[in-house]
Amino acid sequence: MKVVHTDLAPAAIGPYSQAIVSGGFVFTAGQGGVDPATGELVSDSVVEQAEQVMRNLAAVLEAAGSSFEKAVKTTCFLADMGDFAAFNEVYGRYFTGRPARSCVAVKTLPKNMLCEVEVIAEA
User: Fold this and answer.
1) Which residues have a catalytic role annotated?
2) What are phi and psi of 41, to 5 degrees?
3) 96: number of CA atoms within 13 Å, CB side?
4) pLDDT digit string (tens) for the chain, length 123 residues
């Protein structure tokens, strides 16, 4: 098992890793729309947060030796399912290989994020 860390994605805000590589797969922690330089949300727009989510995931996946193209499963969390279409438009530009996916609405996310995504990908 290998712990993954990159300064190009937000540091963990709890006792967990940005990602773990194990058994030939990368398991990322959920990434939100947090700017890694400031630790703050990039905006209150779901589109801008989703774009930052993807930048954060790209950095973590790259640090683990993987990429969006190697994603096999994602789990997406939305604070409001009314944001689904806008979120999905951003998501679709990055996950072009169409991995399996779950998308759920949750009551709240850390830092009052509007969206969060975690990925399982081939290493």
Assistant:
1) 103
2) -60, 145
3) 4
4) 999 999 999 998 889 999 999 999 999 999 999 999 999 999 999 999 999 999 999 999 999 999 999 999 999 999 999 999 999 999 999 999 999 999 999 999 999 999 999 999 999
Q: What is the Cα–Cα distance from 111 to 66, expressed in whole angstroms?
A: 27
Q: What angle, 0 to 180 degrees and rounded to 10, lies between the N-to-C axes of helices 84-94 and 46-63?
A: 30
Cα–Cα distance measured from residue 73 to residue 91, given in angstroms and rounded to the nearest whole number = 13
Reference 51, options 102, 87, 76, 75; nearest CA is 87
Q: Quick check: 100 and 76 in contact, CB under 8 A?
A: no
Q: Hey, what amino acid is at 9? A: A
